[in-house]
Amino acid sequence: MVAGYPVLLVRNRKEFRALGSKCPHYGAPLSKGVLRGERLRCPWHGACFNIRTGDIEEYPALDCISCFKVTVEDGKVFITAKKKVLTLPAVTEHRQCPGLSSLVGVAALVCAETLRQEGFTGRIIMATNEKHVPYDKSKLSKVLPRNKAVSVDFQKQKVHFVDGSSQKYHQLLIATGSHSGFLKVPGAELQNVYTLQTPEESRKILELSTGKNLVIVGASFIGMEVAAFLSDKAGTISVVEREEFPYQHALGPQVGGVAMKMLQNKGVKFHMKTELCELKGKDGKVSHAFHMQTNIPNVFAAGDVVTFPVALLGGDSSSIRHQQVAEAHGHCAALNMLKRGKELHTVPYFWTTLLGKSIRYAGCGKGYTDTVVKGSLEQQKFLIFYIRDGHVTAAASLNCDPMVSLIAEVLYLGKQISKEEAE
């Protein structure tokens, strides 16, 4: 404690570092994190910080952590800090830019901030058809609110908007994100049928569900979180899912089975292996955005809209729709707009919270053929490894922090964990 405020003191080799004690993302205690060299990884969501500078080295955090002066005299460690800095939950000075004021995805946000941080002084224009402000920061450059881009003339390097206007560009980042799937069955247009996509829809779903009968289509992250949140508010909840278990493809049947039992104990009913409709066709992805650069000169893509080579899959491409990955995309795209030749280097890190308990997941388990479970699924305290070609490509846990962060750090360093080592 320094002047009554918690400070994290780290001894790295023979040097001491004093840092803010909590992760600026959601306040996780960094004392329970994973330290490798000068890199400190958050135990909850995998954000990483440099203990020397406080700068972000891995997302999803958008702010840095404070660093304080440390001196050692006569075997005693002294920390010098301004009280004002001690009271700050996070530090934005390192970012060297004022931020944004527009509902654009985190890929675009991080891209713009990185461009400014790396010294780009030209004009940055962000076009969005949304109206909400999720980031309470001053304007970074110029924002075109609720102006939807409808086409791009790549030859003339010009973007055309729905209102008839256009904008010339030197380099373009496509970070449109993705939208929830819509039911294509008779009656999907009826009253009280909603897709969760906007704050208005979220409030409406809560309003209409309170004390009423609720049906949720889909048992992956969003559907399960909605079911958990409304389990003590709705009259009844029924979840309809085409697979046998929740999170079937993301976390597998073992973790999905645990999550399903948690919600069943709260009265949620599941109708598994029940398919309402079949959707066919292209998914609208921008394929193989290597270095976040497309096959069109000066056009980049980031976030949910892309598929990209995943090192953990031996370079096979995949689409990973999550905040931390999108932020890493935006950072990589910005550096390559500045001709830095930056390759994407990140370990996907997911989390979901059900009834106050958090399931954490790191890596990419796509195509896994085996699992190794440590702990007890029944007691809801476990660590599970996902195995592909004899090696761990992902891990998930419940009540086993900071194991997933530790495994994420091992995978980030390019080290392999064999199935035998996992066992």
Describe the structure.
The protein has 423 residues and is an alpha+beta fold. It contains 8 helices and 25 strands. It has helices spanning 83-86, 106-117, 199-209, 221-229, 252-264, 323-337, 403-412, 419-422; strands spanning 7-12, 15-20, 34-36, 39-41, 48-50, 56-58, 67-73, 76-80, 125-127, 142-144, 149-153, 158-161, 166-168, 172-174, 213-217, 236-240, 269-271, 299-301, 308-309, 317-318, 349-354, 357-363, 370-376, 381-388, 391-398. The strands form 8 sheets. A 5-stranded antiparallel beta sheet has the order 21-22-25-24-23, sandwiched between helices. The protein has a 4-stranded antiparallel beta sheet with strand order 1-2-7-8, with no helix packed on it. Mean pLDDT is 83; it is low at 93-103, 133-143 and 278-282.
